[in-house]
Amino acid sequence: MQNLGDFIRAHRERTTPDRVGLPAGGRRRTPGLRREELAQLCDVSPTWLTWLEQGRDVAPSGKLLARLADVLHLRAAERAYLFSLAERLDPHGDEMHEEVQPLQAMVDAINAPAYVLDRQWDALAWNADALALFGAWLDVAADAPTRPNLLRFMFRSAAARGLIVEWGERASRLVAEFRADIGKHTGLPAIVGLIAELAQGSTEFQARWTLQDVVARDGGLRRFQHPAMGELAFTQVTMHLAKRHDLKLVMLLP
């Protein structure tokens, strides 16, 4: 906890009162905020903040850390580092990222089926090869109210059962991969809602989810029986984006 305390203190001391709407008045040992001022802005006691900066055994919540980050005007990388030191999830994590590289341009440059999934496996971008392979799953308008979701496609689309060779085995593995992928983010509202929706709408998903199986998303051979192109085989490769670890680039290489 000492590293966390040192980080907070350093940023407190470099945050000037005028930046948070306070008068600078009075003599200050440093140009930054007094501990009492930061405590007041974050609605905690000065004593508790002192303990936090001293590295004592206190447990800041994600909500409090988010308030600290806002008051101290932490940049995206600094905010992520703060939550990493505290081993807490940022309640606004997916909203606070800096703009990432154009996703559509990235997948369009790949000469193979490619798509980008977010944390709950909604597809954010895909190329023409992926659209040709998966058809109706990705054949939606860019401004559609809901994004194409891989799990919804797998368990709620009849087309998936005809397209994906050995559907049952792949469905079981996909659920186990999803559980491993979301990890400590299981409690996020979007993921809770998705799991509840799938469990209610698909007894096959519910049965697999209750098994508590976990496997790594390692990629490997993916086989399809396409209605127009016939039997197809790819090697799946999945990579996380450098600036957005919640996003995954999935490529199906011939």
Automatic annotation (TrEMBL):
Residues 1-30 are annotated as: Disordered. InterPro entries: Cro/C1-type_HTH, Lambda_DNA-bd_dom_sf, MLTR_LBD. PANTHER family: BLL4672 PROTEIN, BLL4672 PROTEIN-RELATED. This is HTH cro/C1-type domain-containing protein. The lineage of its organism: Bacteria, Pseudomonadati, Pseudomonadota, Betaproteobacteria, Burkholderiales. Residues 7-79 form the HTH cro/C1-type domain. Residues 8-17 have a biased composition (Basic and acidic residues). One of its GO terms (molecular function) is DNA binding. It comes from Duganella phyllosphaerae.
